[in-house]
Amino acid sequence: MCELLGFTSAKNTDISDYLRTFYSHSVKNPHGWGLMYENGGREILKEAVCASESSYLNDVIDSMPEQKNTLAHIRFATVGSIQEENCHPFTGTDISGREWTLIHNGTIFNSRYDFRYCSEQKGDTDSERLFLSMMDTINSRLEKSIPTERARFELINDFIAEKAPRNKLNLMIFDGDLLYVHKNLKNTLSFKRLENGIVFSTSPLDNGLWVPFPMAQVIAYKNGREVYRGERHKGTFVPTIEYITAMDAMYI
Description:
Blueprint: E1 3-13, H1 16-24, E2 33-38, E3 42-47, H2 57-63, E4 67-74, E5 90-93, E6 99-105, H3 126-142, H4 149-163, E7 170-174, E8 179-182, E9 190-193, E10 197-201, E11 211-212, E12 219-222, E13 225-229, H5 241-250
Antiparallel strand pairs: 1-4, 1-10, 2-3, 2-4, 5-6, 6-7, 7-8, 8-12, 9-10, 9-11, 12-13
């Protein structure tokens, strides 16, 4: 199972210890790592090697400035080959010039409309096809008008709620202003409140107070505070015996 980390804050904050602990989990998620961080602009780094074996990740974390918005990912390949193009985050710019970035932990089982993106994607993962579908949905709305921040949230909320049924859809999305967070599998995402922000992680990263993230509900944050919350939807992912057996076999 891939793991996700997200961070949002009102003030620049040193999160290097959280990142180091997060990437230490790469021993069980060895098929690639990725990072979105701020360094005078949005930087995206990713590599199709185990994070603990990266030749430069530690140097990046050591030299990274304090952050307000960060996403990190470690990959356990379930769909798609082991190559850099399949590592998260996925990022792209909509027709208004807004840059979107997504990290995903899960598998898309119900995706009959997304296979049309196979010829467009750079890699071969279901997560990238999900991202391309999201970008098309955003651009379709932008052809009519530029949505307000609230309307932008509602667009992403509706997209996730529509995609969630029968899919494992733990994800985080950053649009330059809002950090959208969602999970639909129990015991797979928690958050910890800091002095000026919030850190989200698939697994707790220290002995502090980590609170389970709500199920089947999209929540958006800005500058370390919740700003929008969608209605709970019915797209909770319930693993089958076949799914559990397959996941167990992958970790042996």
